[in-house]
From TrEMBL:
Protein name (record): HAD family hydrolase
Presence of keyword Hydrolase: yes
Source organism (scientific name): Streptomyces gilvifuscus
MF-aspect GO terms: hydrolase activity
InterPro entries: HAD-like_sf (IPR036412), HAD_sf (IPR023214), TPP-like (IPR024197)
Keywords, in A-Z order: Hydrolase
């Protein structure tokens, strides 16, 4: 039976220049591979060693990129290794099969959101009315499923995010702060539900996962084994669970370590 590996991407396997955390002397810094270009500029990286590990993993397991990114944002990433048959985008709102969204899955997700959550328009209007232009740089709606703000972190009042989380909780939504982005996401819109669907389709009996943010917690809890890096929302909250390993590595070297763990667990299960 195949092993399914569902991994978050940003700040888990791939890293922007600001998130690399290259704390070692320059001469000892790892060689980096650019895996995303946006508007003619390099945007995301992994180490060359991580790239080789991901290539090996793609041959050994069903690797499923699992991201809050929109489909368009995901498709501009050029990961090394075999092209994944499945990918989870928009936090589970879109299940990609060979690069195309599964329409039946998307319809099931949107029907559930309509039944269980306050509408997106209400949340978006609240963000527009209450976010201060002093620290907000962009308002965005992703795939007509959720909303997020791009902010200046050094100017963002810490209490504002907590107050937003309380407001959202009462309406069936959750809030996550990741880097310079504040996400407001409907609670039923989860990476874990999409991962379970891929496991059902592939017949996978072992599921492995990794992620760094609050939006990855459900994915990690749904997997048989999981890993989180030493940075991010989950690390900051000292979040843990029995099947989750908290790694000490931070930044791009954490991505390398996570891929080593994925490959070790996959080979152990299939040997």
């Amino acid at each position: 039976m195949p092993v399914l590996v569902a991994s978050d991407l940003d700040r888990t396997l791939i890293y922007s220049p600001a998130a690399l955390a290259l704390t070692m002397p320059d001469a000892r810094a790892p060689r980096l591979l650019c895996v995303e270009v946006h508007e003619s500029r390099p945007l995301s990286f992994m180490t060359e060693t991580a790239a080789a590990l991901l290539t090996d993993l793609g041959d050994a397991a069903v690797f499923v990129p699992t991201t809050t990114r929109t489909r368009k944002q995901y498709l501009r990433i050029n990961l090394p290794g075999p092209a994944p048959k499945y990918a989870i985008c928009a936090n589970g709102g879109h299940l990609m099969v060979d690069g195309v969204s599964d329409l039946d899955w998307h319809a099931r997700v949107t029907a559930r959101l309509a039944d269980e959550c306050a509408p997106l328009d209400e949340v978006r209007e609240h963000l527009l009315a209450n976010a201060d232009p002093l620290w907000v740089r962009k308002h965005r709606v992703a795939e007509d499923l959720f909303a997020y703000l791009v902010v200046e972190r050094e100017l963002l009042p810490e209490e504002w995010v907590k107050e937003l989380a309380v407001w959202a909780e009462n309406r069936g939504w959750t809030v996550s702060l990741q880097g310079r982005k504040i996400y407001a996401v409907p609670k039923p819109l989860t990476k874990s539900a999409a991962m379970r669907e891929v496991a059902r389709r592939t017949g996978a009996e072992l599921t492995l996962a990794a992620g760094d943010s609050l939006l990855d917690a459900d994915l990690l809890l749904a997997a048989d084994r999981g890993w989180r890096p030493g940075h991010g929302e989950l690390a900051d909250a000292a979040w843990s669970a029995p099947q989750i390993a908290a790694l000490p590595e931070r930044g791009v070297l954490a991505g390398e370590r996570i891929l080593r763990e994925f490959l070790r667990a996959t080979r152990g299960a299939t040997s």
